[in-house]
Amino acid sequence: MNKQTYLGLGSNMGDKQQNLAHAIELIAQTEQINVTRQSSIYITAPWGKTDQDAFLNQVIEIETELMPLALLHVLQKIEIKLGRLRNEKWGPRIIDVDILLYGEEIIGLQELTIPHPYLYARLFVLIPLQEIAPQLIFPDGSGIGEVLARTAQLEDASQSIRKKENP
Fold first, then answer.
1. CATH of domain 3-163
2. Containing H/E element for 89?
3. Of 64, 142, 75, 80, whose CA–CA distance to 111 is shortest?
4. Whose CA is closest to 126, among 20, 5, 10, 8?
């Protein structure tokens, strides 16, 4: 059975926009994954470790037959194929692909936590997530609009994220 799943993508090294596009292309080429929606691309201030270049971030919706850990492993292989190195937590990266939500499931494993542990604190995923899924209800019963409003109150959104204008 297909699971509606949301992935967050980010890049702040090299050709950031091309890195996102290439990651989505590789995800779409994967058996048992169908990319169904893509958000706009957002320019985002770094989160966690702030002394680095700005990120480009995007959220995509997929349908997948893969189980959560199998999906995680596929996404990690894509990151490696694109040159991702895990040198420091929240450090610069060519590509980062996170599983934000996997259906309505709540998963707490050492290797994988769903919903993503920082989902409710990151405008750079909440804003594009609302763009492609404005009626989304999280596993805890809260709506995307409610979560986004609460998070935006804690952070000055105008300083941390803006939609990328296409050239």
1. 3.30.70.560
2. none
3. 75
4. 8
In the Cβ-directed half-sphere of 21, how many Cα atoms lie within 13 Å? 5
Q: How many CB atoms lie within 10 A of CB 114?
A: 24
Domain boundaries, the chain: 3-163
% of the chain at pLDDT higher than 90:
68
How long a stretch of residues is the chain? Answer: 167
Confidence of residue 79 (pLDDT cuts 50, 70, 90): very high
Kindly give the residue spans of alpha helices, DSSP state H, lying in 90-156: 123-132, 144-154
| Active-site residue set | 84, 93, 96, 98
Q: Whole-angstrom Cα distance, residue 54 to residue 18? A: 15
